[in-house]
Design goal:
- This protein is mainly alpha-helical.
- It has a single domain (8-72), classed as Arc Repressor Mutant, subunit A.
- 48% of the residues lie in helices and 5% in strands.
- The chain has three helices and two strands; from the N terminus they run αααββ.
- It has a two-stranded antiparallel ribbon with strand order 1-2.
- Helix 1 packs across helix 3.
Length: 79
């Protein structure tokens, strides 16, 4: 099994999504993630979210707002 390669920016986004779920009980919007991470581009956030889904670290329902959520992984243990 190959290990999942996560960039520091992707890890920051993953932690932000996880914390949002723990705090509010629903997923963050792209704009929420812009504020939390300090990113300037909605496209960058969307691209990183898509990559997290491809890596299997998050799940997301297409065309459904605030549906991104971490999978059952312990996200703080990702290297």
């Amino acid at each position: 099994m190959r290990s999942k390669k996560v960039t520091p920016a992707q890890k920051t986004l993953l932690l932000a999504i996880d914390e949002w779920w723990k705090r509010f009980g629903f997923g963050p919007s792209v704009d929420d993630l812009l504020l939390v991470t300090g990113e300037k581009s909605r496209g960058n956030i969307s691209r990183k979210m898509k990559k997290l889904v491809e890596l299997g670290l998050c799940v997301h329902k297409p065309r459904m707002a605030r549906s991104i959520r971490p999978t059952g992984l312990k996200v703080r243990d990702i290297n």
